[in-house]
Amino acid sequence: MTHLAELERAALCDTLEAVGPDAPTLCDPWTTAQLAAHLVIRDRRPDLAAGVVVPALAARLEHARRDYAARPWPELVGLVRSGPPIWSPARLVPVNEAVNLVEVFVHHEDVLRAGAVGPQRVVSDELQAALWARLRRLARVLFRRARTGVVLLAPDHGRCAAHGPTGLGTVILQGAPSELLLAAFGRPQAAALEPQGSPAAVAALLASPLGLG
Questions:
Q1: Cβ distance 44 to 137 under 8 Å?
Q2: Between β-strands 170-174 and 158-163, what pairing exists: parallel, antiparallel or unpaired?
Q3: What is the mean pLDDT of the chain?
Q4: Among candidate residues 160, 174, 177, the one with its CA nearest the CA of residue 202
Q5: What is the largest CA-CA distance in the chain?
Q6: For residue 63, what is the enclosing H or E element?
Q7: 184, 201 in Cβ contact below 8 A?
């Protein structure tokens, strides 16, 4: 079994080493150091995770993110590369694939596509298939706030109804699974997509607050 999450984490860390700690990301205003700190906290500090949704804990989360981001760059990238600690359930391959593959892939693209649109690397067929499988499971959640109906169409992989029609109609989003996934996580402007629908519907969908947030 290929450990795609581990391969993608290693590729992300290679990219981080290449661009340095001050490079921009699609998670504006985060730099690469701040994005790396986010990943380390996600792996190692589950006690702070609630700070994403609980305002009273947000200050602790931000303080920890600043502390990690200020560490020497080789040390910080090394923490990202080492992944979850030995006590974490995510050390188990099936758990790691389930909870980290999409997260690491999307954040890798956040670094690669800062200031760019469309693919900046070749994504393997195996990884595309894995991303499509996860997108199909998450589609209705990720597109729940779409202002139009949404159908995802990935040639050679299939199609998926992500949101029911609205008064604006339905948009068919066509692209590779990797591109559709980025759109689903709120990054449609950086993705290579072929939207099919009325201009008003396409504009409304691309302006919708997509993703988990």
A1: no
A2: unpaired
A3: 94
A4: 174
A5: 52
A6: helix 55-69
A7: no
As given in the structure block, the two tokens for residue 135 are 């997108």
Mean pLDDT confidence for 82-89: 92
Contacts of 147 (CB under 8 A, 6+ apart): 166, 168, 204, 205, 207, 208
CA angle 139/189/13 to nearest 5° reads 80
> Residue 196 is inside which H or E element, if any?
strand 194-196
Contacts of 71 (CB under 8 A, 6+ apart): 79
Helix-strand-coil percent breakdown of the chain, rounded to 5? 55, 10, 30
Q: Determine the 3-state secondary structure of 151 from DSSP.
A: strand
The pLDDT > 90 percentage for the chain reads 85
**Residues near 66 by beta carbon (within 8 Å), at least 6 away in sequence:** 37
Domain boundaries, the chain: 4-112, 142-206
Asked whether 68 and 76 are in contact (CB, 8 A), the reply is yes
Residues 6+ apart with CB under 8 A from 53: none
DSSP bridge partners of 173? 152, 195
- Considering the entire predicted model, what is its pTM? 0.94
